[in-house]
Amino acid sequence: xxxxxxxxxxxxxxxxxxxxxxxxxxxxxxxxxxxxxxxxxxxxxxxxxxxxxxxxxxxxxxxxxxxxxxxxxxxxxxxxxxxxxxxxxxxxxxxxxxxxxxxxxxxxxxxxxxxxxxxxxxxxxxxxxxxxxxxxxxxxxxxxxxxxxxxxxxxx
Length: 156
Prior knowledge:
Elements: E1 2-3, H1 5-16, E2 24-27, H2 35-48, H3 54-61, H4 65-77, H5 87-90, E3 97-102, H6 110-119, E4 124-129, H7 136-139, H8 141-152
Parallel strand pairs: 1-2, 2-3, 3-4
Helix pairs in contact: 2-4, 3-4
Protein name: AB hydrolase-1 domain-containing protein
InterPro entries: AB_hydrolase_fold
């Protein structure tokens, strides 16, 4: 299970350890770079430049907050990263796949989620969550938890 960039990591693990993976859950995943992704990251960088905003990251990342912000924004906005794509990994994911994506995700369109569902080889359940953004599990936790529990139940 992963969220955002963590979904890419989860997908790579699911592909590399296909015989051991029982299920993959992605929330607001990116499978490729879109203009929307770059714009969203640039806007986030500007937002974090406002007084007190870096403290929001420091709450979770301590004194590494600025480094983390710079690594995220500089990598994803670098023209050398423009061709980044998870397709070759997704094609080697054979386990069942639950894909949750906020309809209004500011970092990626629903095409991102659709690619996770279409390119993986196992059965996929795709949910584009109306009115939700990049953090659907925080915006509507009950909905997310119920979908995840329903997905996991037969995988015991």
